[in-house]
Amino acid sequence: MRYRTIGTGAARRRVSALCLGAMKLGGVMDDSASFAILDRFLEAGGTFIDTANNYRFWEPGCTPDDSEALLGRWRAARGADLPEELVIATKVGARPTVAGGGAESWEGLSRSAVAAAAEGSRRRLGVERIDLYYPHVEDRAVPLEETVDALSELVEAGTVGLLGASNHAAWRLERARGLAEAPGRHRYQVLQLRYSYLQPRADLPLPEAAHVHATRDHLDFVREENAAGRDTAVVAYTPLLMGAYTSADKQLSRAYDHPGTRARLAALDEVAAQTGATRNQVVLSWLIDHDPPIIPLVGVSRTAHVDEAVEAADLRLTADQRRILDEAE
Ligand SMILES: NC(=O)c1ccc[n+]([C@@H]2O[C@H](COP(=O)([O-])OP(=O)(O)OC[C@H]3O[C@@H](n4cnc5c(N)ncnc54)[C@H](OP(=O)(O)O)[C@@H]3O)[C@@H](O)[C@H]2O)c1
User: Does residue 55 carry a catalytic annotation?
Assistant: First the structure.
């Protein structure tokens, strides 16, 4: 396993170069299968896990509590065996406030919603302090200042370690950064966005309406922040396109139907053949050594998925192989 640092100053944490998505753990997946996945990730040196206070409310047979509650039971069961460096990130803002509700009933990012959500997440996870806390989606009905203040109050109170932002437009991140310059406010030090090797057309929507794909502007913003000494990490979700790189039954959506996809898949196959790695592993390695560096946030529903992903963290592509991948268009 390789490692990265996220955050600066006292809030700085060392995490594995791969983050494990717990979205599918708990709920319809029982504790024994879920614990096996988490244990396998830890055995392989993984120390970074991602969840949210709404996973997976949309899935039949599941509730918004399932993933956090599963992680809480796992933490309690493993107790002193858990490494001190373990970082569990969770999110606020996209939890329905009524049973069976959708986006129209999300809790949002007002001061009261954030404070109440953080209490719920701490209780389910069984932690005093949430290691990394993201607003899951933007809430433009609430002034950004109010949200930044609400999240900063949690950091000041010691109930949150680091702040991040998920699914935010680049200009909103810059606006939040400006607001966070005031005393007592804290900036978003980790950005979570959708990103992978294949690039969707920007003029077509993704079927997953809440997903915000990383743009050139996001990556440019991060490079500038890093150069200015305000280290900003990028965590990329859906890096394996939900299995579409390897499973013929998983279709890419319309936004990926363009000549660049065909060129990039050919390049991926060429590099996979040269390295003996799978398509997924080449994608994960490409992301880890990206400029700016990216922490892939992989989804899993089996221990075999964990094994494949952690092997990829040790795969180093040559400069030539990266060139083949980067120049395919
Ligand atoms: N911030 C956000 O808005 C947001 C949005 C989405 C996700 N996330 C986070 O990102 C994490 C990952 O998201 P994701 O599940 O979309 O990511 P992903 O890594 O693109 O997809 C993971 C899925 O790919 C399939 N897969 C993995 N390895 C495979 C293999 N070797 N062969 C065949 N299929 C394979 C599995 O599907 P099956 O399980 O069907 O086998 C697995 O569940 C989530 O757990 C969550 O923590 C965040």
Answer: yes
